[in-house]
Amino acid sequence: MSKELNSCYLKKVILESFQDLEKGNGIGVRECAALDDYADDHELIQARALDVESNWWEYPDDCRDNYFDYALTYNCRDGILFHLPALMTAVIDGYGNIIDVSLYGYLCEGVAQNPQNIPHHGHRGYVNYLQSINVYKIIAYFKFNSQQIHAISLYLLWEMQNDSYHFFENREKWIAFNLKMHNIYKTHASDGNYTLTIEDVIAIVDENHRIVRDWFSAAKLDLKEWSVDKK
Fold this sequence. Notes:
The chain folds into two domains: 1-95, no CATH class; 129-225, no CATH class. Helix content is 58%, strand content 3%. It has helices at 7-18, 29-36, 41-50, 61-66, 77-92, 97-108, 124-131, 135-142, 146-161, 171-188, 198-218, and strands at 3-5, 226-228. It holds the Pfam family DUF6714.
């Protein structure tokens, strides 16, 4: 009999797996937003005083609404790690596509390790970059333990099953969507700003799926055991 992966269960797993985190040298969401607004030193101190230092689940709803989009910006490894479970639970609760895309960048694109070196997604270099992604290096960088790897993998499975932006379960459906966007980009992009071929677009889809499935392998996740409750 399969286990049901519903939102309540998933949030419980994430909380139990990441409950001992401290922000450490990281930057809170209000301070990140203040930095993005070019705040002065006094304003930064005020923002920092309002941020959460531990118990990431205590961020109030106004932070989720107004500041979580900035949570990973300007942050160090400790700050990114501290906010990852808060962002995952926010996505589960229906907050923001920008948060979803940010999580993909850090969990599946290696943004933390290569903040300035990810090629533009409209060129062949991006395909080559995705092919170089090693999930085990991402795990090592953040020092995720086995319980955290399992929680992240369940989150990615939940995303895939719910047809989220980066995680369509159905390959053909995702390819069709990306080819539609490919035609739009080819039509409207300035000369030289978009050079992907149809083969490149399909390769990106397949690499996205390969990276997510590498997470499943790292967690030793048996997909047949899980039945996902669609949101």
